[in-house]
Design a protein that fits this description.
The complex is a heterodimer of chains A (161) and B (801).
Chain A: E1 2-9, E2 12-19, H1 24-30, E3 49-52, E4 55-58, E5 71-73, H2 81-92, H3 102-115, H4 121-127, H5 139-160
Parallel strand pairs in A: 1-5
Antiparallel strand pairs in A: 1-2, 3-4, 3-5
Helix pairs in contact in A: 2-3, 2-5
Chain B: H1 30-34, E1 50-56, E2 62-68, H2 70-73, E3 78-83, H3 84-90, E4 116-117, E5 123-129, H4 132-138, E6 143-148, H5 155-158, E7 174-182, H6 185-191, E8 194-202, E9 214-220, E10 225-230, H7 235-245, E11 253-256, H8 272-284, E12 288-291, H9 294-297, E13 305-313, E14 319-329, H10 340-344, E15 357-365, H11 380-398, H12 402-409, E16 418-419, E17 425-426, H13 431-441, H14 444-452, E18 458-468, E19 484-490, E20 496-500, H15 509-521, E21 528-531, H16 549-576, E22 583-586, E23 589-592, E24 595-601, H17 602-611, E25 625-630, E26 653-663, E27 669-679, H18 686-705, E28 737-741, H19 760-774, E29 784-785, H20 789-796
Parallel strand pairs in B: 1-12, 8-29, 10-11, 14-15, 20-21, 27-28
Antiparallel strand pairs in B: 1-5, 2-4, 2-6, 3-5, 7-15, 8-13, 9-10, 9-12, 13-14, 16-17, 18-26, 19-20, 19-25, 22-23, 23-24, 26-27
Classes of the chains: A alpha+beta (161), B alpha+beta (801).
Chain lengths: 161, 801
C-alpha cells in the first residue's frame, strides 16, 4: 500500500508516495540523503541516527508514516558551528576509518554538545554507547568529540571576552 | 641507472626527497566521509533497479524434493522467481579452492542450492521484485518439500569414519589433515623437567562490519557487458569467478568496488550472491541488487577450533618441546576461501619462541553449518592464544615469572631470519626489545599493588601476551597467488595518477600509497590521486587481504614511480644541461644535486616531454605510464629439504599487557587498562597504522569476552542480531597506550611489514591470560574462548566448561 507523504528534509519540503511499510531511514535515503546509513534495522548500531524535530532518533526504529509532517535533519543538513567543528575534529583525530558509522556518530555528538558543551570522557563514551563502530575501538572518536568541544568552548570564550 | 630500483631496508625513506613517508597525513577525501558524501555500494543503486531476496534453507541437511513457486510468482511486485534448477540452466558452478588432491569431493558449489541443501541459511530460491519489501513478502508463498538427511553438526563426531557425511556424495568429512614436525617431541617431553597439558576451545566468530554486503549487477544487453558494483575487497578475483560461473570472457565483465563500510575479511571473493545478482541481471536484462540483512551477515562462521596442547620445559625455564592437535569445524564447503584459516593456524607455531622440538597435527572437518568466511586474524589468532596460554601454564608449573620465562625463550634479535617448523621464514624482529619497551608503557607495579588489595568479590588480573601475525598471504594455487600491481601515470599538467590492484576497506592505504609516490617525485601527496577497485581501470591483483596493501601495492607503486622519475630526470637533465644521475626531486622542483639554483618545476619537465617528443625529450620513453608488479622475495613455493613451503613474507609482531577485573558473583569482566608495543617495520602513516592496531585490539577484546556465533541443535544460527552477537561498545573499552618499534623487513624494498591484523590475536591472548590470572588456581583450567560470564562462573564453581 502506498501513502502520500510529506516531510521537511534538511530544510527542503519533500513530497512523495511511499510504501506504508517503509522505515524512516529507507524513505530518507530514497529522498537522496544517503549520508544516513543502514547497519542493522534493529536499533542496535546507530548508523541511521538523525534528528526528527530537533530530537535525536534511530531512524530504523521509526515508521516513515509516523514522521509525516516533521522536520528531519541528517548529516547532509547539519551545517552549524557544532557540526563543522565536529567534522574537522573527526578528520584531525582519525575519528573514523571506513566512515560507515561516522554520520551517525556525528549526529549523536551534535546532540551531546548542544546539551552539554563540556562533556567528560565518560559522558562522551555514554553518549555514543548506542552507536557501534567496528574500526576504531572508539578512542579516536571520543578524542575527536572532546577536541571539538574544546575548540567550541574556546571560540565561545573568545566571543565573550 | 640514476636511481636504484631496490631501496635499502635500513633507510628506505631517506632515499626519497620530500619526506611524506612517516608522517600522519590526513586520509584522502576525509571530508567526504564526515559530511555523508562518500558513496557506499547501496548508495549507488539507481531508480529502476530490481531487488532480490533469498529464501534460505531452514534445514542443515536435506534433499529438495519439490519447489512450488507458482503463488510467489504471482505476488505483488514480483518480477521473477528463480530456483536452483533454473540457475543451473543459466550458469556453471562456482570455482572452489578446496584441494582436489586431498579431498575427493565433489566440490561443485552452485549459487542456489541444486537438489541438496547443506546448511541452514543456504540460498535456495531467489525472488526478484520491484521493491525489497515485495521480494521479502513473496518468500512466504513458496512451498518446498524436503527429505531430511542426517546432519553433521560437530567436528569430532564428523571426523569419524562411521559419521554421516555433510554432503550425500562425499566419502569423508575430513577436508584436510596436516603434520608439522621439528626435532623429536616425544624424546624431549620425556626428558623435560616438567610437562603441562591443556586444551582450548574457540567458539565461532565473525567480522560483523558495520556495512553488510551489497551487490548491484547491471547487464547491458546492447553491449553484452556486465557491471557488478558492490562490497568486494577482491575485484579482480571476483571478475575471475564471474567469468567462470557465467561463462563470459573477462573482457565482458567489469567489477567495481566503491567505498567500503569495513570488511575485515568478510567481503572476500566467493559469496553466492555475487553470482546470483549477475545471472539474474543478465536473464532479466535489468539491474538487480542484493542488500544483505544483518541476520544474513551472521551466516558467516570462523575460528571454531579445539586445541589440545602439551608443553615441556627444563628447570631453568627453557621450553624444549611443544605439541598441539587442532581440529577445526569449517562448516559447509562454499566457494570462498574462509576454510583456509584453519590451514593457517598450525603454521604459526610456536610463534615468537625458539623451541627446538615441535609437533603440530591438524584436522579440518566440514560440517552442515554455514561456511567459514574470512575474518581478521585469519587463523593466526588462535595459534597465538594457545601458545600464550601454554607459556603461562608452564610458568606456573615451574613457579617462575611468566615474563621471565618468555624472555628466556624468545627468538633473539640475532636469530633472524628464523625458520618456523612449518617452513615460514620470519623476516626480522626485536622481541626482547619490545618486551623492555612495554615495561616502560605499562604500570605493572601499580596494578600488582591493586591486585593485592582485597576488593569484595572483584578480582584483578594482569595478562601479557606476544603475538606473531604472518602477513601477505601468497598461497600457491590461489587466484592470484600473492602479487599486486600498480600503474602510475603522469598527465600533461604534472598530476600523478596511481591505479592499483589493492583496494581499501577504509584502512587508508590509498593515503599511504599517495605518500610513497609523492616522495618519489618530491611532490605533495595531494597531487597524487589513487584509483582502486575497478577492474576496467586498475591492473590485476588480489585486492585487500592479509594486510598486503602497502607491502605489495605500495611497493609496486614506488617501483613504477621510480621508473617514471628516471624518465623525467632524462628530460630535466637536458633542459638543465646536467647529468641525469644528478637530478634531485624535491618540493615540486627538479634540481641539480648540490646546485639548488639550477632547477625547474616538475610540471615543466613533464610538459616538455609531452610537447617536445621529437626534440628535447626524444630520448624519453613514452607514454609517461609505467606498470609494475611486486612479488615478495620471502615467499617460496618450491619445497625445501623438509618439504615445506613459505606462503607468508612478512611477520609483524606485538606484545600486549591487559588488566581486567572479574566480578566473581556475575562472571562479568571489565577491561581496566591496556598497553601494547607493535612492530610492523617501516611505518608510512603512523596515525593510520595506530588506528588499525587499536581497532584490532578492540576487536580482539570483543572476541575474547563477548562475541560468539551460537547454533541451535538443528544447525540454525541463533545469534542473528547485534543484540545477541555482542560487539564492544564505547563504554566497554579503555583507552589503549600503544608503543611502536621498527625492525624493517630486509626482504621488502620499503622495509614495511603488514599492518591491519596485528593486535587482534595478541588482545585475545592477553585478555585470556588476564582472566586466568584473576581467577588464580581456577584460572589454570580456562579452556574456552570467548570467556563469557557462564564460562567464568563454571570455572569458579570448579567445573570444566
Amino acid at each position: 500500500m502506498t501513502e502520500h507523504f510529506q516531510i521537511t528534509l534538511n530544510g527542503k519540503l519533500v513530497e512523495t508516495d511511499i510504501d506504508s511499510r517503509a522505515l524512516l531511514i529507507e524513505v530518507v535515503r530514497d529522498c537522496g540523503a544517503k549520508g544516513a546509513h543502514i547497519g542493522c534495522l534493529t536499533g542496535d548500531c546507530g548508523a541511521c541516527s538523525l534528528e526528527v524535530d530537533g530530537r535525536l532518533a534511530k531512524s530504523c526504529l521509526v515508521l516513515a508514516v509516523s514522521a509525516a509532517g516533521r522536520e528531519v535533519v541528517t548529516i547532509e543538513g547539519s551545517r552549524d558551528a557544532i557540526a563543522r567543528e565536529l567534522q574537522s575534529a573527526f578528520v584531525a583525530c582519525n575519528g573514523f576509518q571506513c566512515g560507515y558509522c561516522t554520520s551517525g556518530m556525528i549526529m549523536v555528538a551534535i546532540a551531546l554538545l548542544r546539551a552539554n558543551p563540556s562533556p567528560t570522557e565518560a559522558e562522551i563514551r555514554n553518549a555514543i554507547s548506542g552507536n557501534l563502530c567496528r574500526c576504531t575501538g572508539y578512542e579516536d572518536i571520543v578524542r575527536a568529540i572532546a577536541s571539538a568541544a574544546d575548540a567550541l568552548r574556546g571560540r565561545t570564550f573568545e566571543r565573550n571576552t | 641507472m640514476p636511481h636504484s630500483l631496490e631501496g635499502s631496508a635500513k633507510g628506505p625513506v631517506s632515499g626519497e626527497r620530500g619526506g611524506w613517508v612517516g608522517k600522519s597525513v590526513r586520509k584522502k577525501d576525509a571530508h567526504r566521509f564526515v559530511t555523508g558524501a562518500a558513496d557506499y555500494a547501496a548508495d549507488l543503486i539507481r531508480p529502476g533497479t530490481l531487488y532480490v531476496s533469498l529464501l534460505r534453507s531452514p534445514h542443515p541437511h536435506a534433499l529438495i524434493r519439490e519447489i512450488d513457486i507458482a503463488q510467489a510468482s504471482r505476488a505483488p511486485g514480483v518480477v521473477a522467481v528463480m530456483t536452483g534448477a533454473g540457475i543451473r540452466a543459466l550458469t556453471r558452478s562456482m570455482p572452489t579452492r578446496v584441494p582436489r588432491e586431498r579431498f575427493p569431493g565433489p566440490t561443485d558449489v552452485w549459487c542456489l542450492a541444486v537438489e541438496e541443501v547443506i546448511y541452514v541459511g543456504q540460498p535456495m530460491v531467489a525472488v526478484v521484485a520491484e521493491r525489497q519489501a515485495d521480494a521479502e513478502a513473496a518468500k512466504s508463498l513458496i512451498r518446498i518439500e524436503y527429505e531430511l538427511l542426517d546432519p553433521v553438526l560437530e567436528a569430532q563426531a564428523g571426523a569419524e569414519s562411521i559419521s554421516p557425511t555433510a554432503r550425500r556424495e562425499w566419502s569423508t568429512n575430513v577436508v584436510f589433515q596436516d603434520k608439522i614436525r621439528q626435532g623429536d617431541v616425544d624424546a624431549a617431553m620425556s626428558g623435560a623437567h616438567c610437562v603441562v597439558s591443556g586444551s582450548m576451545r574457540f567458539g565461532s566468530g565473525t567480522s560483523a562490519p558495520m556495512e553488510c554486503r551489497c551487490y548491484v549487477a547491471d547487464w547491458n544487453a546492447r553491449s553484452g557487458r556486465l557491471t557488478l558494483e558492490g562490497t568486494m575487497q577482491q575485484p579482480h578475483p571476483t571478475r575471475w569467478l564471474l567469468s567462470q560461473a557465467l561463462d563470459l570472457p573477462e573482457t565482458s565483465i567489469r567489477v567495481v568496488a566503491p567505498s567500503m563500510g569495513g570488511t575485515f575479511g568478510l567481503k572476500m571473493v566467493g559469496h553466492p550472491e555475487e553470482v546470483i545478482v549477475s545471472v539474474l541481471s543478465r536473464h532479466l536484462e535489468r539491474p538487480v541488487a542484493f542488500l544483505e540483512g544483518r541476520d544474513e551477515c551472521f551466516l558467516a562462521n570462523a575460528r571454531e577450533q579445539l586445541h589440545e596442547f602439551q608443553i615441556g620445559a627444563q628447570a631453568d625455564g627453557k621450553i624444549i618441546a611443544f605439541r598441539d592437535f587442532v581440529r577445526a569445524d569449517v562448516g559447509a564447503i562454499g566457494a570462498g576461501g574462509g576454510w583456509l584459516m584453519a590451514f593457517v593456524t598450525p603454521t604459526v607455531f610456536p610463534t615468537v619462541y625458539d623451541i627446538p622440538n615441535v609437533a603440530v597435527d591438524s584436522q579440518v572437518v566440514t560440517t552442515n553449518k554455514p561456511p567459514w568466511q574470512g575474518v581478521r586474524g585469519y587463523g593466526k589468532e588462535t595459534a597465538n592464544v594457545v601458545m600464550e596460554r601454554a607459556v603461562e601454564l608452564i610458568s606456573a608449573e615451574l613457579g617462575m615469572d611468566p615474563l621471565e620465562v618468555r624472555r628466556r625463550n624468545l627468538v633473539p634479535g640475532s636469530g633472524f631470519p628464523h625458520r618456523l617448523p612449518s617452513g615460514l621464514n620470519v623476516d626480522s624482529g626485536d622481541y626482547e626489545g619490545a618486551l623492555d619497551q612495554l615495561g616502560g608503557l605499562f604500570e605493572s607495579e601499580r596494578w600488582m599493588a591493586r591486585k593485592a588489595t582485597p576488593n569484595g568479590g572483584r578480582g584483578i588480573g594482569i595478562g601479557y601476551a606476544f603475538e606473531l601475525t604472518p602477513e601477505g598471504a601468497s598461497f600457491p594455487g590461489s587466484m592470484p597467488s600473492g602479487f599486486e600491481t600498480s600503474m602510475v601515470t603522469l598527465d600533461p599538467t604534472g598530476t600523478v595518477r596511481v591505479a592499483t590492484s589493492v583496494t581499501s576497506p577504509g584502512s587508508g592505504n590509498e593515503t599511504g600509497i599517495a605518500q610513497l609516490v609523492a616522495d618519489v617525485f618530491g611532490l605533495h601527496p595531494d597531487r597524487v590521486t589513487v584509483t582502486q577497485g575497478d577492474t576496467d581501470i586498475t591492473p590485476f591483483g588480489g585486492g585487500n587481504t592479509s594486510s598486503r596493501s602497502l607491502m605489495f601495492g605500495g611497493v609496486a607503486s614506488v617501483l613504477a614511480a621510480r621508473d617514471l622519475r628516471d624518465r623525467i630526470a632524462i628530460c630535466a637533465a637536458t633542459l638543465l644541461q646536467a647529468d641525469p644521475g644528478k637530478m634531485e626531486f624535491t618540493r615540486g622542483k627538479i634540481a641539480v644535486s648540490g646546485e639548488p639554483d639550477r632547477s625547474l618545476a616538475f610540471e615543466q619537465a613533464v610538459a616538455t616531454i609531452y610537447t617536445q617528443a621529437y626534440s628535447t625529450a626524444k630520448d624519453v620513453e613514452l607514454p609517461l605510464q609505467v606498470t609494475r608488479t611486486y612479488r615478495s622475495g620471502n615467499v617460496r613455493h618450491t619445497p625445501d629439504e623438509w618439504g615445506r613451503i613459505s606462503s607468508y613474507p612478512s611477520f609483524p609482531y606485538a606484545v600486549h599487557a591487559a588488566v581486567v577485573e572479574v566480578d566473581t558473583q556475575t562472571g562479568c569482566v571489565s577491561v581496566l587498562d591496556y598497553a601494547a608495543v607493535h612492530d610492523c617495520g617501516v611505518v608510512v602513516n603512523p596515525g593510520l597504522v595506530e588506528g588499525q592496531f587499536k581497532g584490532a585490539v578492540a576487536m580482539g577484546i570483543g572476541a575474547a569476552l563477548w562475541e560468539e556465533l551460537l547454533h541451535d541443535i538443528d544447525g540454525s544460527t541463533r545469534t542473528t542480531r547485534l543484540k545477541s552477537y555482542v560487539l564492544p561498545r564505547s563504554t566497554d573499552l579503555p583507552n589503549f597506550r600503544i608503543g611502536h618499534r621498527c625492525t624493517p623487513s630486509p626482504f621488502n624494498p620499503l622495509g614495511v611489514k603488514g599492518a591491519g591484523e596485528s593486535g587482534f590475536g595478541g588482545a585475545m591472548a592477553a585478555i585470556a591470560n588476564a582472566i586466568a590470572d584473576a581467577l588464580g588456581e581456577q584460572g589454570r583450567k580456562l579452556a574456552r574462548i570467548p570467556c563469557k560470564p557462564e564460562v567464568i562462573l563454571d570455572l569458579l564453581e570448579g567445573g570444566q566448561p
